[in-house]
Amino acid sequence: MIHSKYIWKTEEIAKDKAAALAEELGVSPVLTEMLSKRKVTTKGQLDKFFHPDKFSAYDPFLLQEMDKAVERIQKAIAQNEKIMIYGDYDADGVTSIAVLFSSLEKLGAQVDFYIPNRFTEGYGPNKEAFQMIKNQGYDLLITVDNGIAALDVMEFAKEIDLDVIVTDHHEKRETLPEAIAVIHPRHPLSEYPFHDLAGVGVSYKLSHALLGEEPEELLDLVAVGTVADLVSLTDENRLLVQKGLQVLRNAPNLGLQALAKKAGAKLHEATEETIGFMLAPRLNAVGRLGAADPACELLLAHMDEEAEELAQLIDETNKERRTLVADITKQASQMVEEMEKMPSIIIVAATDWNAGVLGIVASRLVEKFGRPTICLAIDEATGLAKGSGRSVPAFHLYQELDQNRELLEAFGGHPMAAGLTLRVDALQTFTENMEGQAAKLSQEDLKPALQIEDTISLETASLSFIQMVEQMAPFGTGNPKPLFKFASVHLEGTKQIGADKTHLKTFLKKDEASLDAVGFNIGHLVSELSPAAEVDVVGELSVNEWNNVRKPQLRLVDLSVSHWQVFDVRNRTEWNQLLRDKKSERVFICFEESSKEALVNLEETVIAFSDSLSEASLPKSEEIIFADIPQEVGQLERVVQEIQPEKIYFHFHSGENNAMDRLPDRKAFASLYGVIKKFQPFSLSKYEEPLSRKFGWSKQQIEFMSGVFFELDFVKIEGDVITLQETAGKRNLEEAELYQQKERELETRQKLLYASYSDLLNWMKRIME
Question: How far apart are CA 255 and CA 301, in angstroms?
Fold first, then answer.
């Protein structure tokens, strides 16, 4: 068996209702079902979903206090006041700055931007920065993508006579900050129809209100920030990203062009994945390792040379970020694995970690261990621990952190992600509190879920079907890329790929149909899949183009095998690999003591089978490995029947006891009898080597034939000396128990060593089923 990593869920849509709706909307029933799950059930919604050019964004003045913000900014421009945009260091933050900066610059404003340093200042407004900005002659400050929770800093701004306009989208407190205006899509008095704008979306709405029209040329920046921040890609966000992708393909920002070139991205065919996997990580990387200003400067660049230099710097920083993430993830994973008991929430901390990448590390740990995770970097000089957390849907991270407000120096974020700072001396209490709060999570809560669109056949996964699915892009939160299940398929040509062999490549087969598939970071499953396995797989469909040939491809996300499996590891290479892949839940079964001795250094259970080992004392195990050959197949069958394992491995090492590959014929017995008669008293030690040279017999064959003679009373054996029994009568060789036992052993050996994989599989089917 292979258990799925995720819980697979499918929302069922009544076929009759889907058919009626398909006829009404004029689209295929399959597409209708997918749209229904996304609450697209009317012609108007369908039109808006697929045709963004026909629709406009919502009126920005529906946002509460937008009029106050516009009035104050217009006054500042008219009076030539200096305006400071106070941003954030992630992709949403820097695009928010770039959008508003470009709009204010277009209006003739004196404008600059400020991004707090993640390491020295942390997230959001701080009094020292506000004082510095005031001292530099700024009278108006506009926050973008931050500020909603900074109540004390906003009070300080009033004290120093610094006017502040807050624009944000993060979780707000019950009390809003005191400011000239607070623009937030979830403002308690707001009538704005969409609540899930990203920070850059709010910045764009303010720009729209100031300019009197949408600055659509900036929508590529809006798309980048919106996709990067993982907000819901529904309603207005969907329209902004769809239009933004058109700008990105046709008339992209100069800085994004330079960055895409470094990333190897083709902007003329850009999708949300181009943003999510190529552009956004690079924009985020700068602020993760140092000052984020270069990312913002890139987006505001007007000269090719400047853009190229900044893009080069950012790309190199991203490479450094990747190395850091890999190293810290490895360390953090080891810390978790060494814990006595897996906690309901993982909280790990170390002194040498870079706080800027801990959000990514936390995400990796959530993916690996299925637990909410907080990673913290300890600064011994300040006595502070600073880091990031990522969560699972059942654990609202912001609200849970809010219950520990008195222990935290600062925090902010969303239900699924947050940043925080606390004193090291409060870390133990904080950990205990969070573990107590997370204790309510059930195993089902901790196992992440996959929402599966439908179960389809391999034949259905055609180019035309994939093109139909791709019409629903851009995909993201609220409009996930459809995941399809393929049931009871066989995998062929399965192998590990990639420089470090961490990925999997295979072909899904069923009847005459096949589908190319690749799975990232699941290369370890190659050794877990037997040739006969019937596999259920879940993945995303895409079109793979190579040498001008287009064909469907599945990106494997998860798989399961619901039945027991048989593995043939009689090959030495496969056996050595099996020994390297150590597992605590498997048991080696040996029928010879010498085999057990050879495995003595393994940190796993090794059992030497004997008749004294009762079936009741056999350990229960998911995996059993038959290291050598039993004397009789019945011994092996009893082990399998009793343990009922999920995986059965056959190695069948042939030790000294099995050195004879066939029984000596009657002529050999007669020849040995004649030699004994001629040279008796016959010394085995003296004549074994000459006999071997003359007849080609092995030591085991000579000793076996001598033993048969002894059992049949043909000879006497004293020490290693053999003499004939003069009174011996005629008897058949087959009468000797030793002869019968060896005959059975050789039959077993023949059956096990030379059976095909199919023979072994069918044999186990009879035993297991």
Answer: 6
